[in-house]
Amino acid sequence: MNISTTLPPNLLPDDASPDWMNKGDNAWQLTAATLIGMQSIPGLMILYGGAVKKKWAVNSAIMVLYAFAAVLVCWVIFGYQLSFGDRLVPFWGKPDIALDQKYLFKKACLGMLPNATMVYFKFVFAAITLILIAGALLGRMNFKAWMLFVPLWLTFSYTYGVFSIWSLNGFLSKMGIIDYSGEYVIHLSSGVAGFTAAYGVGPRLNKDRERFPPNNILVMLTGAGLLWMAVQGMITGLVCITPAAGVVQGWAAIIMGLFSGSITWFTMMVVHKNSKLLQKVDDTMAILHTHAIVGMLGGILTGIFAESRLCKLFYGAYNEYVGLFYGLHMNRSKSGFRQMGIQIIGILFVIVLNVITTSLICLFVRLFIPLRMFAEDMEIGDEAAHGEVAYAIWGQVEKLENSSSKYGSSNYDDIEASVSKKKGS
């Protein structure tokens, strides 16, 4: 059989396996993308589902599933090209679909890989960013509002940051920012956006904030194992090394791990508990500390410990990317301080971008759908939101007759007061 007759006319064997493609690199890139995707599904899905109260297990898992699916659709239709396409405006590429065969089998902008692989690889990063934001909103966000929030935030916040930092046409990329695996694009962005959105949505019920035990620790730890991040200890080291992966020596990675664990513990257990301002915002999974604060720390430490020889392996330019430590050691202090300055500019850009865009998106969504569930429905949880329960325990399978599937006012103080009044009577 002639193999050319079994393929579409525009996809002949030479096109499917071009000479420029490195099959080993391509295979590893696909493998790495799949492993990252598994951090979201099932990793974060079952981590969130096990870490929350039993009444929120289904809702938390479905928020993750929806975000993963919605991002995929938006990413291939317009998100990838907005993030990596030819420059349209200073922070955006030209919107276009990324599903055309002729485009998918062309060489990607970096590496000996086709665009098809790169679209998939970058998608899983986009998906996990939205899923991390969900961690700050568990236990009270109106699911319909979440359905609208996800594509809006991906379009008007995530793609801005990606184009600026990862695209070859981005202004921070041209300046020489080091963000190898997404410290700024993923962790700092999700931490700031999650905290901002949590402020817009409002807190959980008071009793849920005071006592929110995990409903299944073993399930939670299973999800944690898939990510190698759990109970805030492992995650901080994972987040901190993200921008520096492959561009710092092993001893520097150990120092970064020590700083990330200790500083985050201090901000979470000391600063947060003694700050009335921070306590006003209900960040369910402590995304601010484990992603935003560690994200800033990782970006700065990368600016200190990045080594030119290692940076050359990825960026292809020797002595253009120099951490402050090596800059001082090589009598190139100006280059070292310049790198630190670029890293700090990147941090400020991501913070300002996400505070503004996330606030505007929350205000826009609120015009059509309340961001927060009725307090009465929050008392019930999954059954009110989805008509399901996580565990069908014998004798408890009947649905509550007073469950309400309607979502209402975001004025949670008035709602909680009315619920307390009803209980008192």
- CATH fold-level name: Ammonium transporter fold
**Helix-strand topology string:** HHHEEHHHHHHHHHHHHHHHHH
CATH evolutionary superfamily: Ammonium transporter AmtB like domains
Number of domains: 1
Strand ordering within the main sheet: 1-2
DSSP, total strands: 2
Name the shape in a single word. Answer: globular
Our measurement of the CA-to-CA distance between the termini, rounded to an integer number of angstroms, reads 81 Å
Strand content: under 5%
Reported for the largest beta sheet, the result is: 2 strands, antiparallel
Instruction: Give the CATH architecture.
Output: Orthogonal Bundle
The average pLDDT value, as a whole number, equals: 86
Q: So how many helices? A: 20
Alpha-beta content class = mainly alpha
Pfam family, one: Ammonium_transp
Transmembrane segments: 27-49, 61-82, 119-138, 145-166, 186-205, 217-245, 251-272, 284-306, 340-369
Family: Belongs to the ammonia transporter channel (TC 1.A.11.2) family.
Keywords: Membrane, Transmembrane, Transmembrane helix
Describe the structure.
It comes from Quillaja saponaria. It is found in: Membrane. Belongs to the ammonia transporter channel (TC 1.A.11.2) family. With 425 residues, the chain is mostly helical. The protein has a single domain, classed as Ammonium transporter AmtB like domains (Ammonium transporter fold), CATH 1.10.3430. 64% of the residues lie in helices and 1% in strands. The protein contains 20 helices and two strands. It has helices at residues 13-16, 23-51, 57-84, 101-104, 115-134, 143-165, 171-175, 183-201, 206-210, 217-227, 233-240, 250-271, 276-279, 287-305, 308-315, 324-329, 333-366, 375-380, 382-386, 412-424, and strands at 87-89, 92-93.
